[in-house]
Amino acid sequence: MNILIFVRTPQSAERYKKIAGGVLEVVFKLAVNEEKTHVTSVFQGWLT
Predict the structure, then answer these.
(1) What is the value of pTM for the model shown?
(2) Residues 48 and 40: beta-carbon distance below 8 Å
């Protein structure tokens, strides 16, 4: 499953990455692979 979250700053991206990971793990009982989870720019692409 892929989830894309769009924010304006890298700092916001890191903050929301933690929030989303917590929701996925606690509420939905899903495992988040930290090795695959990353923050990138829409200009670089999300497949990098």
Answers:
(1) 0.79
(2) yes
